[in-house]
TrEMBL record:
PANTHER family attached to this UniProt entry: D-ALANYL-D-ALANINE CARBOXYPEPTIDASE, PENICILLIN-SENSITIVE CARBOXYPEPTIDASE A
GO biological process: peptidoglycan metabolic process; proteolysis
Organism: Mycolicibacterium conceptionense
Entry keyword annotation includes Hydrolase: yes
InterPro entries hit by this protein: Beta-lactam/transpept-like, Peptidase_S13
Keyword Hydrolase among record annotations: yes
GO molecular function ontology, one term from the record: serine-type carboxypeptidase activity
Protein known as: D-alanyl-D-alanine carboxypeptidase/D-alanyl-D-alanine-endopeptidase
């Protein structure tokens, strides 16, 4: 972060940090990234999170993340920060409807490679609610309390975040 703060009445400098270093505001980066995405990507494409049965291991299902950072563990009748987000309970119901007896669930996060945090991100900002480690499937964007705007993010892996609604952290293991 760079900048300079002056007292409005006296003009005295109260704080300064690298004020001579030009920086691009994050909001500008978001607009440019969105514009590039709209020009490049199929606007009708959707990120899919799927559940797969493993033939060689009866009872094992794999939650395969395809980029959905908003999958919610909240009950259907609960509004969350992500309006209209897909629910993990819907995926569980689809598996139940197959008649399969599930004994284990694993999460496949292999769709993304590399670090989960961008260079310059401070891990201390996770609990402040501004950022979360990025994974191809995240429960409620890593929010601990997904019904509130100012929710802190979990320092656990977002794909297995233990939130207020069980059971994700108890039954998901990473592959």
């Amino acid at each position: 972060m760079t900048g300079r703060i002056h007292d409005a009445e006296t003009g005295a400098e109260l704080w300064e940090q690298n004020s001579g270093v030009p920086m691009q505001p994050a909001s500008v980066n978001k607009v440019l990234t969105t514009a590039a995405a709209l020009l490049t990507l199929d606007r009708n494409a959707r990120l899919a999170t799927t559940v797969l049965a493993v033939d060689s291991q009866p009872g094992l299902v794999v939650l395969k993340g395809g980029g959905d950072t908003t999958l919610s563990a909240a009950p259907e009748d609960t509004d969350t920060w992500y309006k209209g987000a897909a629910r993990i309970s819907d995926l569980a119901e689809q598996v139940r409807n197959t008649g399969m007896t599930v004994t284990a669930v694993r999460v496949d996060t292999s769709a993304y490679s590399g670090p989960t945090m961008a260079p310059g991100w401070d891990p201390a900002d996770i609990e402040g609610g501004d950022i979360a480690p990025m994974e191809p499937v995240m429960l409620d964007g890593g929010r601990i309390q997904p019904t509130t705007v100012e929710s802190r993010r979990s320092t656990r892996r977002p794909s297995t975040r233990a939130g207020p609604w069980p059971p994700p952290s108890r039954w998901i293991r990473h592959r």
